[in-house]
Design goal:
This protein is mostly helical. The chain is built from twelve helices and no strands. α1 packs across α2 (37-44) and α4 (58-82) runs parallel beside α7.
Length: 244
Amino acid sequence: MHMARPRREAVRKEIAEEIKAAARKQMEQYGTAGLSLRGVARELGITAPAIYNYFPRLEDLITALIVDAFTDLALAMETAGEQGDSDAAILRVEAMLVAYRKWAIEHPVDFQLIYGNPIPGYEAPVGLTDPLARRPFLGIFQLYAQALHTGEITLPEEYRQVPLSISEYLVSWREQSGVNIPDELVCMLMTGWARIHGLVMLELFHHTQPVIGDAGALYQYEIQSFHKRLAGKSKLIEGILSKA
């Protein structure tokens, strides 16, 4: 009798994964706005009410997909940052940023779900999704803070005058995230993320390749250029990057 419940739970989890896989396939074919429980049911050859036992509402299915996507992306980036034999924070950051692009290319549907067009009528439960959305980059922020402390990087002068409204908001952001990082560095890292994220999105929609050819090389070029800018007068980071 005690073995029945674990078995039922395993079967339930397996079916839930099948439902999510069918949902991803549907989004690949029709876009995120084309996702529906009835469409997923047709894909699986079951009735729509059968799905309600696992995901009572479409919003519940979307949230489960978002949770999976953010978690999987974070794990891929964290694993990349932990591998390798270098103690240099910047090289660990680069490994995590490369993993960011790699995951996006390998999981384009999930990537567009969490970073692309919003699904009409869907509102994410921010208490659940906001911490997950921060997770992929918390490790990177901590590594940059470490690099600033050790002298691997310096902050350009033009980023040292942070608007008051941003500084006021970052007080609560630091409390929520648990990352103690200067306002100036947060702002610069957000602009850096905008650049690499833009390159990934352009690549996913095949806009970069006709112009530049090797989208991966352009991505790496941008990361290296960003880090050289952060080097400022520091020769330490230049030596680290030259060995990468």
